[in-house]
Amino acid sequence: MRDDDHWTTTPLTAGLLRGALDLEVTARGVLPHRLPARARAQNTDGQLAMAESQPSGVRLAFRTRATALALDTLPTKRVYPGAPPRPDGVYELLVDGRPAGRGSVTGGDTLTLDLATGSATVTPGPVGTLRFDGLRGRDKDVEIWLPHNETTELVALRTDAPVEPAPDRGARVWLHHGSSISHGSDAATPTTIWPALAASRGGVGLVNLGFGGGALLDPFTARALRDTPADLISVKLGINLVNADVMRLRAFGPAVHGFLDTIREGHPTTPLLVVSPILCPLHEDTPGPSAPDLDGLADGRLRFVALGDPAERASGKLTLNVIREELARIVERRRADDPHLHHLDGRALYGPDDAAELPLPDGLHPDAATHRRIGERFARLAFTGEGAFAA
């Protein structure tokens, strides 16, 4: 007989989750989503579908006297043939806001993505279990942060004492949208992606709509931001528009205005911070698209290269410097009628000196140390002094 046969099994409902906009019932459990069903129905991009199903910033939050808990999940592991193996996703346990353990779940489905051909295949796998023991037997707030970079179906939550949803402690809600850098890219754990670090330092609750490859000014994303309750909003725009090469300067300005207009329909006076791209030498003055370096991939290294030509800027192709100038101009113009709109140059978060000290390992994405630096700087620049989000 298992020692947890007489434990309490708590239904996994939206009331136990923070940071998710929707909860899909699946054959084996529930799947948190970071875009609502209406937005997902309008999306045809497989990359965005994968990214929004990865629960970056999503956590279970409950109050309990339990001394032990077990979470059954079905993760989706990603495999890139020829590239170094990806580590298992990390779950982090916080008790009364303090780190209390971490672990991973083996098994699960396997998604094989061939960067050379673009093919994708799924191999089904078994449910796995994450377990934490030795917790103090007193009332406490418990959070389990789900892996930021691993699609995770929740199957069952079992504890040796009853569970109830965590109470609302009155923290302001920060709604953030961005690219893979905001999603978490190569951060080590879900609480050390830069938005989570900044939220912790700012004392706010995070809703993270950072989508790897998906910060493309999609109208359905703007509507999701419009319709999500929030006290603070930020949008970090630029890198995906360049490395996906999806528009020219003529379309970029009106698209940004439309994106901001839509957000303002639901949040007319909420502090709204527009953040331009961090430094990325690959695309500072070279347009996209960018692509994996297949020669490096053959050697087991994943790096990206820019395929554009700097001369193409004359025909309206976007670079990061072009985008920074245009975003600064747009915000300055709109501020005449919108005093709650703010701008932050992303190079204040990660600039030339940082790139010399902490270069982007694959040419596009920050590593764990850089996530920490960006998070700490954002917290200082946005949440303190004259920052856009200062209390």
Protein topology:
Elements: E1 8-10, E2 17-18, E3 22-25, E4 30-33, H1 37-42, H2 46-53, E5 59-64, E6 69-79, E7 91-95, E8 98-103, E9 109-113, E10 120-123, E11 128-132, E12 140-145, E13 152-159, E14 163-165, E15 173-178, H3 180-183, H4 194-202, E16 205-210, H5 219-227, E17 232-236, H6 239-243, H7 249-266, E18 272-275, E19 290-292, H8 294-298, E20 304-306, H9 320-334, E21 341-344, H10 352-357, H11 368-383
Parallel strand pairs: 6-9, 15-16, 15-17, 17-18, 18-21
Antiparallel strand pairs: 1-13, 2-5, 3-4, 5-12, 5-14, 6-11, 6-13, 7-8, 7-12, 9-10, 19-20
Helix pairs in contact: 4-11, 5-7, 7-9
Structure write-up:
This protein has 391 residues and is an alpha+beta fold. Helices cover 26% and strands 26% of the residues. The chain contains 11 helices and 21 strands. It has helices spanning 37-42, 46-53, 180-183, 194-202, 219-227, 239-243, 249-266, 294-298, 320-334, 352-357, 368-383; strands at 8-10, 17-18, 22-25, 30-33, 59-64, 69-79, 91-95, 98-103, 109-113, 120-123, 128-132, 140-145, 152-159, 163-165, 173-178, 205-210, 232-236, 272-275, 290-292, 304-306, 341-344. The strands form 5 sheets. Strands 1, 6, 9, 10, 11 and 13 form a 6-stranded mixed sheet that branches. Strand 9 (109-113) and strand 10 (120-123) form a beta hairpin. Helix 4 runs parallel beside helix 11, helix 5 (219-227) runs parallel beside helix 7 (249-266) and helix 7 (249-266) packs across helix 9. The protein is globular and about 70 Å long. 43% of the residues are buried.
